[in-house]
Amino acid sequence: MRRPLRIIMLGPPGSGKGTRAHIISELYGIPVITTGDMLREAVAKGTEYGKTAGGYMSRGELVPDEIVNGVVGERLGRSDLENGFILDGFPRSTPQAEFLDDFLEEHGLKLDYVIHVTLEDEAIVKRLSNRRSCPNCGEVYHLVSKPPKKEGVCDRCGSELILRGDDRPEVIRNRLAVYREKTQPLLDRYMKKGLIKEVPGDYSMDRLSEQLKRMLG
Fold it and tell me: Which of 51, 68, 128, 193 is deepest in the core (most CB within 10 A)?
């Protein structure tokens, strides 16, 4: 039986972090769990932390670390994660990382890897600014890797495609600057623990599974 794998995914928006997380999930049969999914599930189930988080979310406010930590603790305690998990979007701050360390230690568990997906800022800007979205049905296209059959028009519903505000180059660069400022302390923390594995975000898709299997063993 394969040993449990407990992994954190770190990487800037547009780096391909989510793609790599889901490939690892398929290879090793362990769930990808995101902060957003955990919060929405807690709200839907009406847990104590979920009720509190729901109030912040309904007002469009950031959910405080202590509430996020509580929701994560509820989720990590469930039996479907006995063989491991991939955390995508948590931790995002030092207090969240400290909570995770304490939770794992308390339950006799440990992290195996922190996978850091790396990609130059300008490559990310180019990648994200080529996305086009359908405001009607929500379909997402990419002008290079997944263009619509007819330029500027959604294949599914025929609506005019748009460039979302958060996919504009100046907005992307600001998001990247904020991400790096917030994430550097986490990278430093996990580097000292010897947990960081760096994965390039521009690795060819047809060789990605092979690369990840080789890295994780």
Answer: 68
Kindly state the DSSP code that residue 206 receives in the 8-state scheme: G
CB count, 10 Å around CB of 191? Answer: 12
Give Cα separations from 33 to 21, 77, 81 (angstroms).
Answer: 10, 13, 10
Domains of the chain: 5-30+83-216 (3.40.50.300)
Half-sphere exposure of 161 (CA within 13 A, CB side): 21
CA dist 83 and 121 (Å) reads 35
Active-site residue set = 17, 92, 131, 164, 175
Phi, psi values for residue 121, rounded to 5° = -55, -45
Global pTM value: 0.88
Q: At a CB cut-off of 8 Å and minimum separation 6, what does 44 contact?
A: 50
Q: Residue 12's pLDDT band (boundaries 50, 70, 90)?
A: very high
